[in-house]
């Protein structure tokens, strides 16, 4: 709607919808015509049948072969039978008209997930967060590898930043960490255990994800937060909101934590949605945190506040940060530079800038100078 309004396309789009409706009606009219004729014929047949029964009953009464009570009983029985036959025909027609939807429904119900628990998978419990990628490769369509021989080690509590051009494999690598997909080659280990030997539920309970798109549900603020921790108390939710710099706008809301926000969080600003998403992940209190452009929707002032809150919240957690704005990863323990599915550079911020490689070129392009950028 905003795009239609801003480009003054209301009349054109309305006309397009009208033409679409006309085409639909033109396609449906022959079917509806025959449907109407069939309905009239069915109703007429049942009416004629009842009239015939009545006339036959009157003739038999005049011949002394039946009684009025028998005629009434037979008419009632015939009317009941006709009604039930009409219901049967209506149900059959309804099932035929709904069969495409039913087929789609059962296709979804019968779909097999790409990633499932192994037969011998066990619950992991609380992990410490030592992540190891060993020669990991992955391909979406087997024609081109999205990741190629990626190897890195992330000790517990370390902050790892992933940078690179769009499509370089950053998000794919972290999707493998919480098993959106499984690698085609290599292994991903946490605390020395292949994650495929751990149940999906217990693995994902140990990983908190803040997505670039917040994915806010049309529910209350409290219900959105409890997605991360269903049994969270009010105090725990407020603590998470405060850490994410979100407590102020929640307290200003009409019903506080019980305020219902619209579909996709449309009642909130972009920054408020993102901060609520961060609070949801913090409430989960996982040993591993994934931040996929977590501050991308925030203004400069709020970004600094949230960055400080995240730095405090990330202490003691293994944290993976996907970032395009390099200033936000200035204090990362290690930076992995991805290019075409490979890790081509690895090191601390200053170390990579000093090397004068790909990362240094990215930093120079972003800050428009060879000088060291100010910390976020």
Helix-strand pattern, N to C? Answer: HHHEEEHEEHEHHHHEHEEEHH
Report the principal-axis shape: elongated
- For the terminal residues, how far apart are their CA atoms? 36 Å
Secondary structural class: alpha/beta
Strand order of the largest sheet: 6-7-8-3-9-10
Q: What portion of the residues fall into strands of 2 or more residues?
A: 15-25%
Helix content: 40-55%
Give unreliable regions as ranges. Answer: 368-376
Separate helix tally: 12
Largest sheet descriptor: 6 strands, mixed
The overall average pLDDT, rounded, is: 85
Please state the oligomeric state of the protein chains shown.
Answer: single chain
Radius of gyration: 33 Å
Number of strands: 10
Key words describing this protein structure:
376 residues, alpha/beta, 6-stranded mixed sheet, 4-stranded antiparallel sheet, 12 helices
